[in-house]
Amino acid sequence: MQSSKRATTPQRIERSPGIKKIAEKLGISIGTVDRALHDRPGIHPDTKKRVMAAAAELGYRPNLAARFLKSGKGLTIAVCLPRAIAHFFDDVRMGVHRAAEAHGAMVELIDYSFSRFEEGEAAAVEEALKKRVNGIILVPGRPSHARPLIGKASRCNIPVVCIGSDADGTGRLVHVATDSFSSGALVGEFLGCLNRPLRRLAVFIGSRGTSDHSEKLRGIQDSVPRHIRLKTTWEVIEAHDNAREAQHLSEKLLDTSRGLHAVYVATANSLPVLQAMDRRSLLGRIPVITTDIYPELLPYLRSGKVLATVYQHPVSQGRIAFDALHRFLVTGVRPAERILLPPLLVMRSNLDILLERSRGWSRRSQGAQRSPESVCLKG
Amino acid sequence: MQSSKRATTPQRIERSPGIKKIAEKLGISIGTVDRALHDRPGIHPDTKKRVMAAAAELGYRPNLAARFLKSGKGLTIAVCLPRAIAHFFDDVRMGVHRAAEAHGAMVELIDYSFSRFEEGEAAAVEEALKKRVNGIILVPGRPSHARPLIGKASRCNIPVVCIGSDADGTGRLVHVATDSFSSGALVGEFLGCLNRPLRRLAVFIGSRGTSDHSEKLRGIQDSVPRHIRLKTTWEVIEAHDNAREAQHLSEKLLDTSRGLHAVYVATANSLPVLQAMDRRSLLGRIPVITTDIYPELLPYLRSGKVLATVYQHPVSQGRIAFDALHRFLVTGVRPAERILLPPLLVMRSNLDILLERSRGWSRRSQGAQRSPESVCLKG
DNA sequence: TTGAAAGCGATACCAC
DNA sequence: GTGGTATCGCTTTCAA
Question: Please, are residues B135 and B323 in contact by the beta-carbon 8 Å criterion?
Fold first, then answer.
């Protein structure tokens, strides 16, 4: 009477094997299987080995829904980004958050923003490790500072995805970035199409020591000669991502050397250069290619004073980094060692349609609030 | 002895309210709450109203993990794509599958491929409706054929995402595409940068009746005059996405009219045009811009015989369509009415890095391996 | 070192 | 119409 046996309707849905099936197969309890699968203490090595073998044989994949349902906690991922170039890293952050939102409560992000002019990244990663996050997305502003911490994380089996700069050899999971060499080469190819003399070119970078910058330089220097017969003289200006320095150096360049045929600013630090050129009425006469998109650059693009800018897909970089990390955490599939995105040449014609989709810096808080309608920056 | 009361460790994890909380609040059972929330028969209207009110007040969101765990079935989404331009739609399909994979077993895709030269799309959608899928991703090859079915789906509360062509006014959820006007305008702007005469331009399209094609035409015709002083004569060739026709028409064009200054092929049907030009040694002398990327086009791009091609992000279109649909199904948030991607100018320098990431047609089966249930309508 | 069992939230039955 | 409850796969805790 008390136990009413009811005909258990045999569900025809074929489910993938779970820990129950493994336990059943081995004639042990699910608790033991769990201990084996999760490296928990208190299990006989032999038992563990048998469990792992059975799991592999059955093609066991943990049911994330059940795991989440029970534990009430999803994957926790630390997002360690510099505050530095706000418009860029805010877009990266937005990309990460948008991608994470697709998983609802099953993924939780923790933001750690830091100043790249301190040892912020190390502190951020350290903090994340203390919180025992499941994975880390990191933009190493100063790769050298971050290296030891990335190594530490990897040793703790906490995968680290690097965006922008790399830290190879540290055990990081993957490096996501736009291809710097292609960026430079693309600019060179574009300039080569212009049918103009290119005997004297100026390239503004931050520093030759930054591989992103030196690769862009290498790209354009490799590309231009393929399209231009005459030999080219290169003015390489290292402005160290500093606005005042960029202003000073560009004014000096413009005043001392005449006959510049094109300018390529390979970092986001282009505004001082443009202003200096504008004051000398050089814009519109000398072709200028910049990098990234930010509010102050828009009027230059719209008016044609800047021919094109190289867009580095900050939003996509964030999304791709998240997806690679998430996939690894969930399925164990390692992404490619390095994921490089193609640079995109943005001109007047495709500027607005681009802004409409990936406009992180024109809204206030992204990710949390979904703005009902699109805001247009006034240019 | 038999019932060992154990101190239920109070979990500190704050969970969002579930049906249990609603039931508790109203002093009814969870079964009743379930009936109310899912429009199931056999519930008093008043009770239902009270439940809905309580759910809204508590901010109830169904726990997808629990739902999936119990039902064993995830969301089912039909992917209805033409077999037509294989390299393009295979990439779209890949984008959809990649995005779906992120959700593991919680999302199941069913592929319906059809021939765009029959009423394949209607049959595909009809089939999907019969299977009671949760949502449909559709590329309407012949929008007019698809319209009634999209309307039917929408009336059944089955959201439909249109990729490429639109079917507005049918109740479809969202339209995902690259911006056709921008594509044309971008080509015009690029040609304008070349510092060459552009008095006589040829534009190859499929048909003026296809809005994608007419918009591209409008784009370039709007753009070129902004960069070129002299008036331009336009040769608009409608090749109806037919290789033989394109060959015939381009030979006729090239033989009768001399002094062409540039060629823009606004569809993927560019090979016959290129071959015709190549036979007359015109490539490399007349700037050519094409559309899309496919294996046979690569040598033309690599050799510089084609200056650039307009990439329409097939993979991204697939991903974005899936994400929008998934988000809607899960959270109820409607995407924007229309999602337009910026066209991307691909040249020699960024070609390889692009191929490396989105290379659907260079590999064999994509996604097929994942979905065992892959239905192919014959066309 | 292992077994047993209580739930997590939603579904789908059954019994009233 | 409504209440009750077994169940999904996993984690976690207690008992042995």
Answer: no
